[in-house]
Design brief:
Length: 268
């Protein structure tokens, strides 16, 4: 079964249980009244009163600050490395930008398909944001070249990415590479800008929940939040938008199931 088929079956099952879907619509604000009920205002002007809210708005991959980056998305610029993208860079050079585990895992996977892989680091320490075991594997892989103090500064091509220019941020030396595929792993931006101040965020903007907010100043006195509850009682968060998650599909699915358990506990 494909992912699309599974999602469609989940949608149909939710309809059978009486769930109502409203799309396309965005939430403008959430305000809690004196009785503890949350008033959710939509961009359409409609309002919903509810005892619980589950935030599952996810995060967007960060783009490089290059004009051509968006133009080549899906046409040479990718934010994941699967078997589909791997076929596109077979026997050619693949450029991976980033220094975290996601970038390292992508570089290792692509090295089995591409002729060579260039892993670009803005700094000079491969282990600063990457697990040691993964860094060790990368250093032993003969067709992966780790390029420290290096940034991707230009992209070029007709209908598809064909070349990239890289720059050493210390010497300012530049090099043009023939490259049909660039993989960007420079972090993610959570969709939390619409949340009220009563919902605490970490220093990167992700929603804080459960044990990490037990002594938070925004948490009402005397409350012990459940695993996925935020500092606003009755408001929960799950998936990529939540602080401390691995940003993986399986984790998000488990989070969703746990979140509904938390909602039931709260309502009881």
């Amino acid at each position: 079964m494909t992912g699309a088929d599974l999602a469609n079956r989940g949608y149909l099952q939710a309809l059978k249980f009486g769930a109502q879907f409203t799309a396309p619509v965005s939430v403008a604000s959430i305000v809690q009244d004196d009785s503890g009920v949350h008033v959710v205002s939509f961009c359409t002007g409609q309002k919903v009163r509810t005892r619980t809210v589950l935030i599952a708005t996810g995060a967007s991959y960060q783009r490089l600050p290059l004009d051509a980056c968006e133009r080549f998305e899906g046409m040479g610029v990718y934010y994941s490395a699967t078997s589909v993208e791997a076929r596109l860079c077979r026997e050619s050079t693949a450029v991976v930008v980033g220094g975290g585990n996601s970038a390292g895992q992508a570089a290792m996977f692509l090295s089995q398909h591409a002729a060579d892989v260039r892993l670009l680091l803005r700094g000079n320490d491969l282990r600063k944001g990457m697990s040691s075991y993964l860094a060790d594997r990368i250093e032993k892989q003969s067709n992966i070249e780790v390029m420290c103090h290096t940034e991707l500064c230009e992209m070029a091509g007709d209908k598809h990415l064909e070349r990239v220019e890289i720059r050493n941020n210390q010497t300012e030396e530049r090099e043009m590479l023939d490259c049909p595929s660039a993989f960007i792993f420079v972090g993610a931006k959570p969709h939390t800008e619409w949340l009220p101040d009563s919902v605490a965020l970490d220093d990167r903007g992700f929603v804080m929940t459960g044990p990490m907010i037990h002594h938070h100043e925004k948490l009402p006195e005397g409350r012990t939040p459940c695993e996925l509850e935020t500092t606003s009682p009755g408001v929960f968060a799950c998936g990529d938008v939540r602080s401390g998650t691995t940003k993986r599909c399986a984790f998000a699915v488990g989070d969703g199931a746990l979140a509904i358990t938390c909602v039931h506990q709260y309502l009881q």
